[in-house]
Design a protein that fits this description.
By secondary structure, the chain is mainly β. The chain has a single domain, classed as Jelly Rolls (Sandwich). The chain is about 0% helix and about 50% strand. Strands 3, 4, 6, 9, 12, 14 and 15 form a 7-stranded antiparallel beta sheet that branches. A 4-stranded antiparallel beta sheet has the order 5-13-10-11, with no helix packed on it. It starts with 5 loop residues before the first strand and ends with a strand.
């Protein structure tokens, strides 16, 4: 049985859906040194193309795999969760940012010894009907860093959005 996500609408006596979206990064993306780069979120998470969304709850048509963003088109407060899996060389600094439209709203920076690391961002943000959210990466390494992804892995690169109010 598929459970609907949303709240009953008193006016219509029907169901008022909550916009929900989730995108994954599917492969390896090289991030050039010193250049803020949009993270390619190119797979919609559902039970067919990968991920944990076997009930297809995260496919409300608000995901854009061409522009690599989620654009709910319904005004409100949204819970945004994002994760990037990156290989960081010794002494490098890697920054991962969440953007609403053109402006950064949250960032996570790490400088680590040589390791593969999953970095997380979570925030509640106001979104108008024209707003969208996307992820960017930036680093100071002498060589390029790589972001990895694989839909369905617990540590993959992804972004999810759900209206909370």
């Amino acid at each position: 049985m598929v459970q609907q996500i949303g709240t009953p609408s008193p006016a219509s006596g029907g169901f008022n859906p909550v916009p929900t979206g989730r995108l994954h990064h599917n492969d390896v993306q090289v991030i050039p040194q010193g250049v803020p780069t949009i993270i390619t979120l190119d797979v919609i998470s559902n039970g067919v193309s990968g991920g944990y969304d076997y009930g297809n709850h995260f496919n409300d048509g608000i995901e854009d795999t061409v522009n690599h963003w989620i654009k709910p088109e319904v005004e409100g407060w949204y819970q945004v969760n994002a994760q990037v899996r990156v290989f960081i060389e010794a002494g490098d600094v890697f920054t991962f940012q969440l953007f609403r439209g053109p402006g950064s709203i949250a960032a996570k920076t790490t400088g680590q010894s040589e390791t593969t690391k999953s970095l997380h961002i979570s925030d509640i943000v106001w979104m108008s009907v024209v707003d969208y959210v996307l992820l960017k990466a930036y680093h100071t390494a002498a060589t390029a860093c790589s972001i990895t992804g694989s839909p369905g892995r617990y540590d993959s690169t992804f972004m999810s959005v759900q209206r909370v109010r």
